[in-house]
Design goal:
alpha+beta; HU Protein, Chain A; 2 domains; two-stranded antiparallel ribbon; 3 helices
């Protein structure tokens, strides 16, 4: 599911809200998560999972086109850990 599909689904399930308002709500939700992660924070949604960041060390990589060695700087990457409820729903039989 992509963002526009999410907005359409939520707008369809909430006919009292305009699609434009739903889009603004979804945007605010994702912006809030991004801002918290940028501050090296953590976002936990009970029953769904937790978003955090992980640090990656600097390393030497390879340019796939030329095979030349390239220095890749240290960076932070987003990380998602699913909650217990989500894992159980994903692994339900039948």
């Amino acid at each position: 599911m992509i963002r526009s599909e999410l907005v359409q689904k939520l707008a369809g399930e909430n006919p009292d809200l305009a699609a434009k308002d739903v889009e603004r709500i979804v945007g605010t939700f994702f912006d809030s998560i991004t801002e918290q992660l940028a501050r090296d924070g953590r976002v936990e949604l009970r029953g769904f999972g937790a978003f955090s960041t992980r640090r990656r060390q600097a390393r030497t990589g390879r340019n796939p086109r030329t095979g030349e060695a390239v220095q890749v700087p240290a960076k932070r990457v987003p990380y998602f850990k699913p909650g217990k409820e989500m894992r159980e729903r994903l692994n339900m039989e039948g």
